[in-house]
Amino acid sequence: MSKLLLVILALFGAIAAIAxxxxxxxxxxxxxxxxxxxxxxxxxxxxxxxxxxRAIERRARDITPPADxxxxxxxxxxxxxxxxxxxNCHLSPGTRDSELRKGLYPTPPDLTxxxxxxxxxxxxSARQYWVIKHGIKAxxxxxxxxxxxxxxxxxxxxxxxxxxxxxxxxxxQGMVAASxxxxxxxxxxxxxxxxxxxRHVDKPGSKPHKD
Length: 211
Ligand code: HEC
Description:
The chain has 211 residues and is mostly helical. It has helices at residues 3-28, 42-60, 72-85, 87-90, 99-103, 121-134, 151-163, 169-178. Helix 2 crosses helix 6 and helix 6 (121-134) packs across helix 7. The site of heme C has 21 residues, from helix 4 and helix 6.
C-alpha cells in the first residue's frame, strides 16, 4: 500500500472518529432540540421533506381512487367528518388560525388552500388518501385507519378535499349541515332519524369531541 493511500485512509478515519464523537456528545448530552417552537435547520427540514415525499409517492403509486370520487353524496359525507375531525388542524373556509394549529410543528397545511384540482386527479387523490389512512410519523397527522376509520370514509374525505378550496364559508357550512354528521370511527350514520344518539352535526368551529 502506498504511503499516500495510508495517509488518506488515516485522514478519513480521523474525520469519522471526530464526527462520531461529536454525534455522541450531541445525542447523549441532550443537545438535540425537540421543542415544537423551534423550527428545524432548513437543511434538516429539506431532508425530512424529501424523504417524506419519496416515501409517500412510493406507497401511494398503486392506489386507484374509486370511480365515483366526485359523487356529491360522497363529498357531502366527507364534509361532516372533515368538520368534526380535521378542521381544527387544517382550517375551514372563513376560519382563521386555530390555537392548536399555531402550536404544531410542522404546521398542518391549510387544506382550504391546498387545491389539487387541475393536477392528475388520481395521483393527487391517492396521495391524500394514503396520508389520511396512514398518517405521518413524528408529525401531528394521525393514522385515521388506526382509530377504526374505514377505507370508504377515507375516500369520502378525499372526495371532499377536492371540493374544499372552492367553497365559500356559507357553502361549507351548508354542506356540513346537510351531511349526516360524523362518527368517530369513520362509519357514517346514514339514518336521518334525529332520535339516534349517535347522529349529530358539529357546528363549524366547534372542537372534535367524544359522543
Ligand atoms: C392534530 C392535527 C391534525 C389533525 C386533527 C389532522 N391532521 Fe392532517 N396533517 C397534520 C399535519 C401536522 C400534517 C403535515 C405533516 C407533515 O408535513 O409531515 C398533515 C397532513 C395532512 C395531509 C397531507 C397534506 C399535503 O398536501 O401534504 C392531508 C391530506 C391531511 N393531513 C388530511 C387530514 C384529514 C382529512 C384529517 C381529518 C380526518 C386530518 N388531516 C386531521 C395534522 C393534523
